[in-house]
Amino acid sequence: MTSASPEPVGPGDLRVSDVEREQVQQFLSRAMVAGLLTPAEYSDRAAAALAARVRRDLEGLLDDLPGASLHAERSVDVLDLQAGVGGSISRQGYWRVPPLVRVHSRAGRVMLDFTDAECTAPVVAIELATQLCSPVIVLPEHATADVDDLRIAAGKVRDETVHRRERGTPHLVVRGRHSLGDVVLRHPRKPRWRPGRRRSDVTREGDGTPRRGTRG
User: Fold this and answer.
1) Do 69 and 62 touch, CB atoms closer than 8 A?
2) pLDDT digits over 69-114, tens only?
3) Helix axes 18-33, 39-51, angle to 10 degrees
4) Is the model's pLDDT at 158 over the cut of 90?
5) Burial of 34 (0-12, 13-18, 19+ CB in 10 A)
6) Beta 150-153 vs 110-113: how paired, if at all?
7) What CA–CA distance (Å, rounded) separates 51 from 53?
8) 79: Cβ–Cβ under 8 A, 6 or more apart, which residues?
9) Residue 98: how many CA atoms within 13 Å on its side-chain side?
10) Closest Cα to residue 67, out of 36, 21, 41?
11) SS (H, E, C) the chain
């Protein structure tokens, strides 16, 4: 007795990957900037893209957008940051951030500062494969992050950011695996308050002339 062969799976029923979900979010982001989608429409479709399980779910989000189509062979930009044992990974100042940043480090400094970065998508995934270090992720004041899919062993998440009800832009999704150290999320450091000028530099009231010390 022979077993029945399984029914063939159509293209629309194929499972989708994170890369494909992020690709669709890029299309949606560009459409909103171009005025093809309202912010509310973008928000709804971006949420649906994150929840999509098969290709049909994603393709339905792009049907009415000119020039937008999902191609399995087309990969989104990915930035791979790798360091050898004890090596350092640092991104500060201006740098271009693709939708997916992968970080591989063991026993080395990791600093990702998004303060002056250019994010090419409103949602950026940061995938950690790190250990024996304490990665620091610096968010702009208006940005948000979540660590729901991050797995940590022998360490914790130190989240020093401001939590908001609404998702910020960019929104960083920190995921992957980290061990033997903390993962730090914070905003840029504010300059410390410094005392005012010395007494000899204080001006007299009304004439703008520096006050000079008098002999005792």
Assistant:
1) yes
2) 665 444 457 899 998 888 999 999 999 998 889 999 999 999 999 9
3) 170
4) yes
5) exposed
6) unpaired
7) 7
8) 97, 98, 100, 101, 102
9) 14
10) 36
11) CCCCCCCCCCHHHCECCHHHHHHHHHHHHHHHHCCCCCHHHHHHHHHHHHHCCEHHHHHCCCCCCCCCCCCCCCCCCEEEEECCCCCCEEECCCCEECCEEEEEEECCCEEEECCCCEECCCEEEEEEEEECCCCEEECCCCCEEECCCEEEECCCEEECCCCCCCCCCCEEEEEEEEECCCEEEECCCCCCCCCCCCHHHCECCCCCCECCCCCC
* Structure tokens that stand for 173 in this block: 């999704």
Tally of CA atoms within 13 A in the half-sphere of 93 that contains its CB: 1
CA–centroid distance for 185 within its chain: 11
- Cβ count within 10 A of residue 61: 21
Query: What tokens appear for 71 in the block?
Result: 């191609």
For residue 25 the two structure tokens come to 């979010």
Inter-CA distances, 164 with 94, 152, 185, Å:
25, 24, 14
Structure tokens belonging to residue 89: 């990974």
What tokens were used for 183?
A: 């993962």
Could you tell me if 145 and 139 are in contact, meaning their C-beta atoms sit under 8 angstroms apart? yes
Stretch 194-209: mean pLDDT: 48
Strands of the 136-138 sheet, one edge to the other: 89-91, 110-113, 136-138, 183-186, 157-159
